[in-house]
Amino acid sequence: MKHFFWIVGLAMATLFVACNKNDYNEQDQIRIDNQKIEEYFTAKNITGFTKDPAGFYYKVIEPGTGATIIDSCEINYGYRSTLVGSETNIEKVDSAVNYVFTIIRGLRLSFPKVKIGGKIQVYVPSPLAFGQTGNAKYPGKTPLFFELEAKKLVSSFNKETQIAIEDVAIQKYITDNKLTDSLTKDPKGYYYQIKDPGTGAAISATSTVTVNYTGKLFSGSTFDSGTGKEFGLSGLIEGWKLAIPKLKVGGEIYMILPSPYAYGQYGAGSIPRNTPLIFTVKVTNAK
Prior knowledge:
This protein is α+β, with helices and mostly antiparallel strands. Helix content is 20%, strand content 32%.
């Protein structure tokens, strides 16, 4: 069966989770949670875990011998979850089915580290899980432990086909808004305009960036924005990981992303499924 609580988790823990009213800082919370995880490792003499640049810890138990797992794969998987420091299962599910890109970020980034048939253990800080608010099963601002098994490849979403379908609507938007001369189409299928290349430090796909950003639908409505927000690029939507490194610190970019580089078939929050998105992003710092 589909486990749609993962999709709820995605909406809460995507790029735009932060509730500004509480001055919540995702990177600060990752550091706080990871201190708890590392203290637990020390107390229990737990070794063998690798820290991913996105901020979670993982250990491959069995690498698997089946198909490679990517964001667009629909997989059958099993999982067990606990709070860090607890032996009591929050959930133990033998069989769930979801597209990888709909799962909470910490697990979405973990599954591709094994192939089908593989098993992996993961300690996830709360911003890569259920954020500051949590949900009915998982408390907010709390690191979690997951034991995952990738059992079967159910199907693989055809990213190229969806990009081609959405490109018709994107080109119409570009024409209607007289943007043809200002935008460049990347070979991967998204569009961008570097408004300011920046003169500061270079940015990589694993950088932690501080940004001012606005995200809009083609209707013109703003679905989110932020000023001075800090994010780890490796944990964000693919379009940001691809486009932001075209800048240096101080730079600004306008981009139109087809949904496979954003929130795909399921959308997130107020963002509909299969919807191209517009972002304007200025990078003020990177480390």
